[in-house]
Each structure stands twice: as C-alpha cells, then as structure tokens.
Amino acid sequence: PQHVVLYPMVSKSLRNIAAGKDPLEGQRHCCGIAQLHEHHSLGYEDLDELQKNPQPLIFDIEVLKVEEPGSYQQDPWAMTDEEKLQAVPLIHKEGNELYRQGKVPEAASKYYDAIACLKNLQMKEQPGSPDWIELDQKITPLLLNYCQCKLQCQEYYEVLDHCSSILNKYEDNVKAYFKRGKAHAAVWNVAEAQADFSKVLALDPSLRPVVAKELRSLEARLREKDKEDKVRFKGIFSQ
User: Fold this and answer.
1) CA nearest 171: which of 146, 203, 212?
2) Rounded alpha-carbon distances, angstroms, from residue 138 to 13, 98, 134
3) How many domains is the chain built from?
4) Does a structural domain hold residue 117?
5) Is 167:192 a contact under the CB 8 Å cutoff?
6) Single pTM value for the model
7) SS3 string of 62-116?
8) Mean pLDDT estimate for the chain
9) What burial class does residue 216 get, using C-beta atoms within 10 Å of its C-beta: 0-12 exposed, 13-18 middle, 19+ buried?
10) Residue 41 sits in which domain range?
C-alpha cells in the first residue's frame, strides 16, 4: 500500500487525459503529499476511497491498437513548452484542412488541441503580462474557428460562452459578435441576437449584406414559429 499512496492522483491525471484534458488540471505546483492534503475530493468516489485506504493494486493492460512506425503524434499534455509552440501552427493547419473537407467535428478537435497547448503555456505567465497577452492573441483566432465548428454542430450555448469570454477582453472583435449573434438567434434570444448584429454593423459597415441576410432568416424563423405556436395553442384550448 505504501507504494501506491499517490496512485489516486495519477489515476485522476490519466482520466483527464482520456477526456482530452490537461492531466494537471486543478493541481498546483507542490509535492504529491501536499496535493493529497489540498484536495479533499478528487472528483471520483473510488479514488477518494483509495486515497483514504491505500490498497495493493493489480493492473490488467489491454492493447487497443498498434500504430505504424512514425505515425504516433504526441498529445499536447506530453509536449515540452517548445514543442507546444512549434506544434500549434501545424495543428491549426490540420484543423483548417479538415474543415475544408467538411470534417467539422474532427476540425474542432484539432482547434481544441491547439488551444490547449497555448492555454497550458499561458497558465505559466502572469495574467495581463506581455507574454500572457501575446499567447491570448494567438488563442483568440483558434477559439473563433472552434466556435464556427460548434455553430455547425448546433452546440450553440458553448458558442455563447466562448464568444462572450472573447468579448470580455476584446470589445471590438467583429467575428465574436457575429458568431454570438448567430448562436443567440439559434436559441431564440432575439433581442440579444439583434444587439450583437447591430454591434457588427457599427464596427464594420461593409458586413451589412451578411447581417441583413441573418436578420431576414431570423425574422422568417420567428414568423414560422409564431404560426406553429398558434396551431399548437389552438389545439390545446379547443379541448
């Protein structure tokens, strides 16, 4: 048992990796014993129990796949800082190519990996410092690409969250207003959508034809919804 007392923290990291997260998410820079005292719960009942009562462990290892030599690509969490910086443009390019091919979920995954690399580096910088800002400015276009994918996957609330986070820092980001406007329109936040599209026009009047098209689409959907609601409520009140 004394040899596996830190395994719950290791297992939590492995589970983060399986979920596509940074394995050090939620941890701070300190030794393993300090981590045990810092976290009253690891987020998993079985790991909490093992942390309280360490037990000898037996592992069954299953081979899931065999990759060709040279085909393995490191996950972002396994890269050094320098490797992450070098990988971001390549991952970005792969995401763009997948998007052009119509492989939108796969493209979103690539953009997410590139963002994760930069976020990991940004965590090591003082918020608001020149290096932090430089990394943030690299994250923003990737995050907008990610939001475009999520729009097409109809995951509108994620788009709302990410675009709002961008606009909290960069109030003049036209693309963030436009994508957030489309997401608001999709979930029937009419006033919010109109406000975002108005902001787009104020920042870039050349986009008037594109915004007008979105507003016409929203108005048409509202009329259709109104007709459907009248039919639905008429059936209810006639019973």
Assistant:
1) 203
2) 27, 20, 7
3) 2
4) yes
5) no
6) 0.71
7) CCCCCCCCCCCCCCHHHCCHHHHHHHHHHHHHHHHHHHHCCCHHHHHHHHHHHHH
8) 87
9) exposed
10) 6-52
